[in-house]
Amino acid sequence: MDKSASSKPARHDPRPVPVAIVAIPETTASVVYGMYDMFKCAGRDWSLITGEGTAQSLMAPVVVSEHGTPMTVGNDVRIVPDHAFADCPPVALVCVPELAVPPGEPIEGRFDATVRWLAQCHRQGAILATACSGALLLGEAGLLGGQDATTHWAYCGILAERYPTARVHPQRALVVSGEGQRLVMAGGGTTWLDLALYLIARLVGVEEAMQVARMNLIDWHAIGQQPFARLARTRQSEDALIADCQVWIADNYRCPSPVAAMAGRSGLPERSFNRRFQAATGLSPMEYVLTLRLEEAKQMLEAGDEPVEGIALAVGYEDAGFFSRLFRRKVGLTPAQYRKRFGALRRALAAA
Is the pTM higher than 0.85? Predict the structure, then answer.
């Protein structure tokens, strides 16, 4: 992540930083207005509560859209933009919320006006920041070529596939890249909170960002987003032969030679089976089995207190050390760390 935010001196420009937050029908109002509230809070709310300093917002967010007319977005919430793209005043920062379209659904040509406006703002020197799957629009604008990037974990594969020269980091909750570090991308879910804090620190000051974090009880996603992710999309194949193997392996992934067993069940030579399975599911047979095993291990770690050695054996690994190293490499936490974080969350939710 960009280190400039941590060393940035306090901002002395009295003018609030102008910020545009893009609204499109395929988004949710919670992110649009959540970012709006956080930016508006910077410099104002801490003073209101503590009596320290002058209660003045140090950022000036507006909501913009293609036409500037009211629209209904996700969850049937109505958003009333402040400006259309054409009459939006110059801004230092443009924020793009999530793009609520299923992973893999075609988007070419669907957001042309928004993409053109984003590219124009970037040419004019603005920072472009995206939350969640909004990073897809940076790709459509041609801005991700040769750049580090991230997005919601469920969209990382699609981002890498659509924009193959981008360096996609699925494990990271925040990525800063591009010329002048003017592309900022957050991962999935509530990592837009990290995004907003980073942008406040960078454009206003670290102390103001800390005040916003304290006011809103925000905890930084230091572990990234990979521990929260489903390791891969184990989609059901339309190939009847492969689909039969998927159903079978769902109950038999613990067997010692699962790929050979599936190939035998299919009646195909193992090499031919591997190619057909990859084409049908998007994963190699071994990657598919690995995903099933680790997802089951995650559930066991969350739900109980069985020793890691027992869990390793239960999902098909006799060597608990190998299992632990594999788990950490794929999930981003050791099994013990995962249990501590997510087991505690599951228990708290169950108790509540």
Answer: no
